[in-house]
Description:
This protein is α+β, with helices and mostly antiparallel strands. The chain has helices spanning about 240-250, 260-270, 280-290, 290-295, 305-315, 320-335, 340-350, 360-385, 390-400, 410-425, 445-450, and strands spanning about 5-10, 15-20, 30-50, 50-55, 60, 65, 70-75, 80-105, 120-125, 140, 145-150, 155-160, 165, 175, 185, 195, 205-210, 215, 225. The chain is elongated and about 90 Å long.
Amino acid sequence: xxxxxxxxxxxxxxxxxxxxxxxxxxxxxxxxxxxxxxxxxxxxxxxxxxxxxxxxxxxxxxxxxxxxxxxxxxxxxxxxxxxxxxxxxxxxxxxxxxxxxxxxxxxxxxxxxxxxxxxxxxxxxxxxxxxxxxxxxxxxxxxxxxxxxxxxxxxxxxxxxxxxxxxxxxxxxxxxxxxxxxxxxxxxxxxxxxxxxxxxxxxxxxxxxxxxxxxxxxxxxxxxxxxxxxxxxxxxxxxxxxxxxxxxxxxxxxxxxxxxxxxxxxxxxxxxxxxxxxxxxxxxxxxxxxxxxxxxxxxxxxxxxxxxxxxxxxxxxxxxxxxxxxxxxxxxxxxxxxxxxxxxxxxxxxxxxxxxxxxxxxxxxxxxxxxxxxxxxxxxxxxxxxxxxxxxxxxxxxxxxxxxxxxxxxxxxxxxxxxxxxxxxxxxxxxxxxxxxxxxxxxxxxxxxxx
Length: 451
C-alpha cells in the first residue's frame, strides 16, 4: 500500500495525516479517494505538506466525507513522508473512521483497498471500544454513524444508534441488538446485508460485512440468529429463486415465508456452487416431501389420485384432465415416479413452450396454465421477497385471495400482501422481516406498484 494514515489530536483539533510509504526519486503523481465517517468532528481544511500542488474536492453529507485528491509531488521525498492532511475541529469525544481508501499512483495502474488501512481515530477521551485486536473483542460504537472493524477473532459488536457499518473480518462474529427480533428488518442482497431497527430511537440501520450471527434482546435463551443460513440467497439467479417459490405453491398452495425461502435459496446457491451443505432443486423438492408441513397437508391416507389432483389445483388452478391424471396416477402407483418428481414435472409442463402439433385447444390451455402459475409466483414473491413476510396465516390468505384459474384476483392478492406488511410494521403486531433486494428484475413487481 503506497499510502498510510494516522491521526493526531491537539486540544480541540484533530488532524488525519496521509503518508507516502515509499520514497520517490523525482516528480510523483498520486490520486487518492478516501471516504471518512465523522462523529463529532467538523471538517476545516486540507493541507499540502510537501512541495508540489494539490487538488481536493471535499463533499460532506450526513457525516460522511468523500474526497477526490490529486497530488503532484515535486522533487524527491524519503520513505514515510507526510504528504497531506485533513484538519477537523472537535467539541468533545468522537471519532473519525477511514471507511474506504482508493489509491492510484503513476507507477501502478492498480488500486488498493485493504482493511489494514481502514483505521479509526478516536479523540476527546474516547475509550478503545472501537479499536479491534487480532483476538476476540467486544466492540461498542457511538451514537453517530461509524465504521467498526473486528479483524480476526470471534468478535461481538454491541449495536448503537446511528447508521453504522460493522465489518467482522475473520472468525465467527456476532452483532448484539438492543430490541426484540420482531422489530427488525434484515435485508438480503447480492452485496451487503443490512439490519434496520424499526423502533424510534433504536439501533438505526447497520450494514453488515462478514457477520455470522445476530442476537436480540429477550432472546438470551434462544440460539443466536445464524445469518449464514440465509445470506446466500443474494447469490441465486432469479429463475432459480422463482423455482423455489413454485415449490411452495405446489406443495402448500401458499406464498413462501421469507425465512424459509431465503434458507432454501441459500441451500440451492451452495448446491449450484458445489459447496458442502448445498442441494440441487431436485434435492430440495425431495426434502420438501419430508417436511412436517407436507406430512400434515398430505397424511399417509391421501391416495396418489388425491395428491395429484391437489397439486394440479395448486399449480394450475384447475382439476386435471382425465387422461393426464390417469397417466400420473399410474406412474405414482407403480413407484416409478416419486411425489416430489411428479411435482417438478407438473411445474416444468406448465412452463414449457406449447407444441403446435397438439392442436389449438391444447395450446390455449397450456398458455392459460402458464399465465396462472406466473401470476401466482409473482404474488408469492411480492409477499416474501418484496415485503420479507413470514406469517404463515397471511401467506395462505394471500393465495386464497388470488383464487383459482376462474377467479385470479391478482390485484386483490397484492392488496392482501400489502395489508399483511402494514400489520407487520405496526407497533401492536410487529413482525421480523427479511426481504431480498437485487435477486429479481427491477421491474418484476411493476404490476402491483403501478396499479
